[in-house]
Every structure is written in C-alpha cells, then in structure tokens.
C-alpha cells in the first residue's frame, strides 16, 4: 500500500521550529538538527512551510523565487542536505507550493507593473480597468481573505487582483506561461528529491473570466473559489508526478462547501490527498465528530482516496485552546489526538501539538506579523498565536529554540514547563503519549466499525483486535463491554482506572 495512505506527516513551520544561527528565526539547519527528534517521535514524513526567497509579507506565502531558499532560512545546499539526511533517517519531505499568487517582488510582477496596460507581461496576472468614468472604483466587489478589498490600483490606474494581501498578486491560470512555469517548478524540486507537494489554496486558481460580483445569493456559483476549470491543472500535474520514480504525493489545501466537492479533487487522475477540514472544524461533541468522520470516509471511498485528518496547523487556533483551553482543553486535545490517530487514513500533526502547546493569546500587538491582524485593524488577532517558536529545553533564553537571546515571537514563561526535554523524561507527558500512540498506530489496519454506545461516547474497532473508546463528555463512564473482558489497555489520554473511563478521555485496547 502506498505510504501516503496511512502516513503520519509532521508539519514544520520553518519560522518557528528551530533556529541554528541565533537570529531568532528558525531555519533549515535548525530543522536538520532536530530530525532525530522527529524520527524518535515516530512520524513518516515532514511537510515544510515555504522557505523560498520572499519579502515575508505573509511569512513566505509571498514567493519571489520558487527555486531557491530565503537567506533567513539558509541556502539551497541546506535544502538538499535536509532532504538527503531526512531520507537517510527514513523520513520523507513534502514541500509547500504556492501557485495561486506570487510575491509582488517576484520578477514577473515587477515587470508587469513596469509595463503599460495591455502589455503581454501583465497577462500573467489579473490586471483590469476600474469601474466608473475615471476607473477609480475597483473592477468588482471581491474581498481579500485577509480583510479589505481584493484589488489594488497600480500607479498607471489599472487594478490588480489579490485574494490575499496586496503583496500577493494572483496569477492568471489561463495563461500558458503560468502553467508551463509551475510544471517546471514541480520538476525542479522533484529532481532535487522531494517526496511531494502541499498545494496552497488549491481551490482558488481558476477565476470566472467575466469577473462578476460575488452575489452571495444562496445556491449561486462562486466566481473564484472551487471552479471546475481548476481540475485541468491538477490532471497535468498528476501526469508529471507519475512520471517520477518513488511514491510521490500531492496534498491539496482545499476549502470547499461539501465533502462531495472535495472528492472531485481526489479522482484517480488528480491529487492523491487533501486536508480534511471538516474534522478540524467539528466541535468537541460526539455526534459532530462522528458525522465528520463518517462523511469523509463515505465520500472519499467513492474516489478511492484515503481520508486525511488534522487538528491543528499554522492557520488555526491550536486545538488545546479551541477545545476550551487550560486543563480541560488539554485533556480534550489529548483525547482528540488519540481519536484522530486511530482513524483509517493519514494524519497531520502540527509542530508543538505533541508538547500540548496552547495558543498564545496575549502577544503584544507590536510583535504581531500576520497581515490578517494588520488588515483588520486588530479586529481579528490573526494567526501569530499558533506560530510561537517551540520550547525545546530550559537552557537558553529562547527555551532552546536557538542560541540567541530571543525568538521572533516571545514564548510565554510558562512554556519552560512544557519543553521537549522536560517532557521526554515524564512518562505521563503529552510528548510520550504521542510517541506511544504513533508506535501502536504503525500496526493498525482494517476498516472502521462503530460500536453501539450511549450518547457522548464514541467507540470503534479497527481490524480484528483493536478498539478505540472516546468519552467526549466530562463525566466518567463505564467502558463498553467489548473493552472490559479480556481487553488490554494499550494507551490512554488520561489515567484509566479499571472499567471506568474518566471524562474527556480516549483509550485504545487490544481485544
Ligand atoms: C494558506 C496558507 O496556509 C496561509 O498561511 C496563507 O496565508 C494563505 N494560504 C495564502 O497563501
């Protein structure tokens, strides 16, 4: 079976994982130095957030050169070394590809701005005349995902589209040159040995050429999200990937209305996998969680794609905090993780969740970098709170993040108690829970079969001998009969006494 059908993939947010040179920002050498930690954790692959040269207006999702490494993170040879060393340790590398937009500092966009309206080099982006007699009103009502309008006026009066920040102009995917360029970028990194690509905003590349206003009418087709034309791009890309040896993979970042729409991207000649955000966005509530699992498995099975599961990433509030924060948030988060890791399919872990890190909610405004914070005037705090650098050990001012005195976002003093070093020697730590779960998970096979359970409890079998029970409620329950007789407790998210499963607890049994 292909590795990506059941892999556990660890997301490394390069800015915040490990800093080798003491400048307060993580880098590729830092990642390399921590590969043994990831190997010991028991993951199969690493997904690296963008490390390419970039003005960093959106922490690297504004790419100025797709074929190099930003000096903040190292040099190209560091990427090669990282890929090679990861492979030696049996870890695969997935990199981030950002095809919807480039940086406004990309040579293509600079050339487009320098050229007059109508010039061929403008055709790589989406330049349009404005509305009104003087063209001083934007071409339509589209809004940026980061707040405000999606159009910025160039000095000569035309407007360009950016579904994200103004420093991230959208490419025109009807242009042959754009398609050819990205096919070449894929080959460039495949030749360097990467095992796959995470595709940023994979549902956004195609736009309605008429550029109509977003109507907001229920049932109306959206003019720039999830258009059918986008599928042609992925069919071309799949052919390229399939031409390479090894079992390489695409994972799409795809936010669509229904699991049915998601499945279209996963037809056998398109992407292999996509993030499944239905599970991530489900509340900590038994019926909602079960519905998210059942819907995903049912729909994806039709196209032969594995489900993927994810609870946290660099764009969302960490799941400890989403589930209530503090002690109860951590209990639920640990239980949710055991639930996720018992499901069939592949799973994504976001750096630091194995340490039980919460969202940092009290960052001073002055240190926030996320354009979401800036563009909403602070109404939305943005995503910096889940991007705070990792605490590795108590032996430096930045808690082992790097040799320098500080990290680009300040770490809460309480994180001194959550370092990887400290958790390493505590058998009850979240780190050791993840390690134990990942070790058991390696042998899990078979479909999922639900057991009948009372409200607030989820229980299912995998294969003949494995049982997962989750008490989603806060009060203790008696475990189902299947977990009582002749069952061995393999691991649990909090301490289990006899037949009683405490509130907000998941347990795995061999039976
Ligand atoms: C999704 C990425 O995960 C996010 O961090 C980024 O801001 C947007 N795409 C725009 O590239």
Bound molecules: 1-deoxynojirimycin
**CATH C-level category of the largest domain:** Alpha Beta
Helix tally equals 14
Count of DSSP E strands? 18
Strand coverage percent: 5-15%
Main beta sheet: strand number and arrangement? 8 strands, parallel
CATH homologous superfamily identity of the largest domain: Glycosidases
Radius of gyration: 23 Å
Fraction of residues in helices? 25-40%
CATH architecture assignment of the largest domain: Alpha-Beta Barrel
According to CATH, what is the topology of the largest domain? Answer: TIM Barrel
Q: Let me know the average pLDDT.
A: 97
Structural domains: how many: 3
Structural class: alpha/beta
Strands of the largest sheet, in order across it?
9-8-7-3-2-1-11-10
**3D shape:** globular
Low-confidence stretches: none
In angstroms, what separates the terminal alpha carbons?
25 Å
Describe it for me?
It contains 14 helices and 18 strands. With 511 residues, it is an alpha/beta fold. It folds into three domains: 364 residues, Glycosidases (TIM Barrel, Alpha-Beta Barrel); 55 residues, Oligo-1,6-glucosidase, Domain 2 (Oligo-1,6-glucosidase, domain 2), CATH 3.90.400; 65 residues, Sandwich (Immunoglobulin-like). The strands form four sheets. An eight-stranded parallel β-sheet has the order 9-8-7-3-2-1-11-10. A five-stranded antiparallel β-sheet has the order 12-13-14-18-16. The longest helix has 18 residues. It is globular, with a radius of gyration of 23 Å. The model has no long low-confidence stretch (mean pLDDT 97). The chain binds 1-deoxynojirimycin (NOJ). The site of 1-deoxynojirimycin has 9 residues, from loops. One of its GO terms (molecular function) is hydrolase activity. Keywords: Hydrolase. This is Glycoside hydrolase family 13 protein. It comes from Actinoplanes sichuanensis. Belongs to the glycosyl hydrolase 13 family.
């Amino acid at each position: 079976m292909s590795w990506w059908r059941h892999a556990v993939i660890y997301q490394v947010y390069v800015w915040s994982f490990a800093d080798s040179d003491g400048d307060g920002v993580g880098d590729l050498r830092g990642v390399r130095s921590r590969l043994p930690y990831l190997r010991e954790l028991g993951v199969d692959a690493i997904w690296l957030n963008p490390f390419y040269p970039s003005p960093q207006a959106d922490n690297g999702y504004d790419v100025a050169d797709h074929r190099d490494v930003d000096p903040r993170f190292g040099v190209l040879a560091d990427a090669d070394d990282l890929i090679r060393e990861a492979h030696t340790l049996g870890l695969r590398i997935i990199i981030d590809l950002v095809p919807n937009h480039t940086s406004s500092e990309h040579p293509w966009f600079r050339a487009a701005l320098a050229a007059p309206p109508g010039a061929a080099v403008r055709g790589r982006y989406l330049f349009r005349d404005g509305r009104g007699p003087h063209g001083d009103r934007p071409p339509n009502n589209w809004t940026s995902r980061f707040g405000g309008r999606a159009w910025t006026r160039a000095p000569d009066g035309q407007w360009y589209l950016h579904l994200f920040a103004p420093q991230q102009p959208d490419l025109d995917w009807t242009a042959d040159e754009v398609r050819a360029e990205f096919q070449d970028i894929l080959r460039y990194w495949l030749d360097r040995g990467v095992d796959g690509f995470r595709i940023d905003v994979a549902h956004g590349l195609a736009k309605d050429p008429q550029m109509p206003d977003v109507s907001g009418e229920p049932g109306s087709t959206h003019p720039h999200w999830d258009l059918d034309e986008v599928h042609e791009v992925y069919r071309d890309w799949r052919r390229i990937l399939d031409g390479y040896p090894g079992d390489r993979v695409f994972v799409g970042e795809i936010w669509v209305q229904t699991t049915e729409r998601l499945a279209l991207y996963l037809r056998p000649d398109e992407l292999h996998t996509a993030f499944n955000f239905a599970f991530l966005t489900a509340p900590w509530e038994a019926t909602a969680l079960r519905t998210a699992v059942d819907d995903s498995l049912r729909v994806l099975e039709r196209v032969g794609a594995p489900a993927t599961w994810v609870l946290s990433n660099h764009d969302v509030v960490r799941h400890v905090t989403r589930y209530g924060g503090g002690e109860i948030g951590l209990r639920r988060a640990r239980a949710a993780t055991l639930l996720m890791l018992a499901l069939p399919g592949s799973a994504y872990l976001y750096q630091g969740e194995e340490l039980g890190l919460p969202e940092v909610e009290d960052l001073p405004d002055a240190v926030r970098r996320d354009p979401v914070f800036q563009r909403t005037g602070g109404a939305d705090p943005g995503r910096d709170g889940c991007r705070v650098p990792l605490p590795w050990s108590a032996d430096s001012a930045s808690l082992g993040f790097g040799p320098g005195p500080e990290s680009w976002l300040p770490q809460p003093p309480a994180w001194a108690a959550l370092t990887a070093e400290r958790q390493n020697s505590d058998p009850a730590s979240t780190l050791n829970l993840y390690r134990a779960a990942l070790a058991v998970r390696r042998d899990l096979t078979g479909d999922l079969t639900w057991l009948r359970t009372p409200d607030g409890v989820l229980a299912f079998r995998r294969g003949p001998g494995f049982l997962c029970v989750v008490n989603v409620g806060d009060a203790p329950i008696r475990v189902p009969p299947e977990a009582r007789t002749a069952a061995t407790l393999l691991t649990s998210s909090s301490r289990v006494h006899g037949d009683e499963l405490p509130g907000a607890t998941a347990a795995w049994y061999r039976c």
